[in-house]
Amino acid sequence: MVWLCGGSMEVLPCSRVAHIARMKKPYLSNIALHTRRNALRVAEVWLDEYKSNVYLAWNIPMENHGIDYGDISQRVALRKRLQCKSFEWYLDNVYPEMRRYNNTVFYGEIRNSNASHLCMDQGIKENHTATLHPCHGTGPQIGRFTREGQLFLGPLGSTGEETRCVVDDQTSSLPQLLNCDKVTNVKEKTWHFSQNDTIINRASGRCLEVASSRLVLGPCSGQRWLIKNTMKQ
């Protein structure tokens, strides 16, 4: 983290960069195992209270995740010796446009007790409706429920499309997936929810329900939902 420790980076428009690949990769074919490990090492050393963003982006539980990221004591000592600034300083001064996800309460796949093989999914973006799909736990199925009661679906990013959230427009029988910043009725985009319980819209009182393998809005029948991971505060 160059900025945190007093350094800077410069852009040289006319520079040329080359990369020479090895004949044989020094790791297994599943590179995700190594990238997750490296991401957690960076998070645990440098990101302070924002390390939870990395666990959220990778859909990894914050405890008992089974990923051995090794001994980081030397890296922590290096950061202390260099008197590096906090990651919050970086967000405030270097990259203030970056989204912060510290208001997350639950994250990961969202399953209904009546159809646990299906997960809430952002579906085809052009349809602007949340849907159900066989669970795979990657981008379109990463859900995020916040302290404010908003329910998001889709992959994360520093800015942009992940702002879409599940909305009850009080007209359609299907839950809408809209740009949260553009929904002016706050109650339409907020929900009552706790783990293993119903998801109730605060504007209409309707519930997210599974009917004939479809995600719909309707009278609450007691269907229970579970979001895979709980954010460690």
Automatic annotation (TrEMBL):
It is found in: Golgi apparatus membrane. It comes from the Eukaryota. Its cofactor is Mn(2+). GO terms for biological process: protein O-linked glycosylation. Its main location: Golgi. GO terms for cellular component: Golgi membrane. Residues 107-228 form the Ricin B lectin domain. Pathway: Protein modification; protein glycosylation. Belongs to the glycosyltransferase 2 family. GalNAc-T subfamily. This is polypeptide N-acetylgalactosaminyltransferase.
